[in-house]
Design goal:
The protein has a domain at 14-19 and 115-315. The chain contains 10 helices and 10 strands. The protein has 317 residues and is α/β, with parallel strands linked by helices. The strands form 2 sheets. Strands 1-5-4-6-3-9-10-2 form an 8-stranded mixed β-sheet, with helices on both faces. It has a two-stranded antiparallel ribbon with strand order 7-8. It has helices at 23-35, 40-57, 60-72, 78-111, 120-129, 143-153, 168-176, 188-199, 232-240, 274-289; strands at residues 14-15, 114-118, 133-136, 156-160, 182-185, 203-206, 217-222, 225-230, 243-251, 258-264. Helix 7 links the parallel strand 4 and strand 5 (182-185). Residues 1-18 have low confidence and may be disordered.
């Protein structure tokens, strides 16, 4: 599907938002609507407080953040590490609290919070080429603001795993509305649908730092250490010739809003040699993180695999 939707079949595997909200989910939605009227600065202040609480309780997420930060910033002193960990925890709390405001206020009000877009010409050029676009969006900043902005620019499709609570389908339908991406199930048939969509000139969004299932990834350097890395995105790029762009929505200080960033993919991301391609993919994620380091979701366990020692095993302290 291109910017004008030409050449698109009826995707049988696309997941429609048809589930109605049950009462408890509707109450959650109403609560988010109330939160949405608070200033973003206040919402972020609450989120920062949640981050401090996580630090005080030393939750598993904080332990994983601690481990990851020691891996990617091994030269940091104890004081520097503590300062960085506190900043990352606060941003993690903000990423959770802001969802209530973004979802409760709807797409139009969320997009009013976008103050600047950097690199939009890259996306416009890629869409005009009609050769397919892959948006690589790391776990960085505010995904939902980026999601709304991208879906306003062009129809989007994303890989999809159903939520554990099926009733949340109705909530997603309500909060995303007309700017919801087409969701495609994350299975073999769904992946084939992504290939077809890109071949038709469409746009696909993928989390490039999503940890793949065992046997579905390659180890590639990520901040100087081997991390299990997806091969799906490089394969899609290599086989379809689609343009790969990295994107994220940076959270601005003091609730000032968001900046959308679009960056070109590093050379080699579509290389047929998957070791080369996965290394380039991780460099692209690192380039994004370099612009908003503390806003990355450092709680993810990227450095684990069944056949390798886990650095997180020693974090239970």
């Amino acid at each position: 599907m291109g910017g004008d939707g030409r050449g698109v079949a009826a995707w049988q595997l696309a997941v429609p938002y048809t589930v109605r909200m049950r009462l408890d989910i509707r109450l959650i939605y109403w609560a988010m609507c109330l939160v949405s009227w608070l200033p973003l600065r206040a919402v972020h202040a609450v989120g920062a407080g949640v981050g401090h609480l996580m630090l005080w309780r030393r939750t598993s997420s904080v332990r994983h953040m601690d481990t990851n930060l020691r891996i990617v910033r091994p030269q940091a002193t104890r004081a520097e590490h503590a300062t960085l960990l506190h900043a990352v925890a606060r941003e993690c709390g903000k990423s959770a609290s802001e969802i209530a405001k973004i979802w409760g206020g709807g797409a139009t009000r969320a997009l009013d919070l976008v103050r600047e877009v950097r690199g939009e010409a890259l996306l416009d050029t890629a869409l005009a080429a009609r050769s397919g676009v892959i948006i690589a969006a790391p776990h960085l900043g505010c995904w939902e603001v980026l999601n709304y902005w991208l879906c306003r620019k062009t129809p989007m499709a994303i890989l999809y795993r159903p939520p554990h609570v099926a009733a949340l389908e109705g909530l997603l339908r309500k909060v995303r509305g007309a700017l919801a991406p087409t969701q495609i199930r994350a299975d073999g048939a769904g992946v084939r649908t992504l290939y077809k969509r890109l071949a038709a000139g469409g746009t696909v969004g993928i989390l490039p730092d999503q940890k793949p299932r065992e046997g579905e990834g390659r180890f590639a350097p990520f901040f100087g250490r081997e991390a299990l890395t997806m091969v799906l995105l490089p394969r899609l790029a290599a086989r379809t010739g689609a343009t790969v762009l990295f994107a994220f929505a940076e959270r601005l200080p003091r609730g000032a809003g968001y900046h959308i960033h679009l960056l070109p993919a590093p050379a080699g991301v579509a290389d047929p040699d998957l070791d080369v391609a996965c290394a380039a993919l991780n460099r692209g994620v690192q380039d994004c993180i370099g612009l908003a380091f503390t806003q990355y979701q450092w709680q993810y366990k990227r450095y684990t695999a069944m056949d390798r020692p886990s650095p997180y095993d020693d974090a239970r302290r």
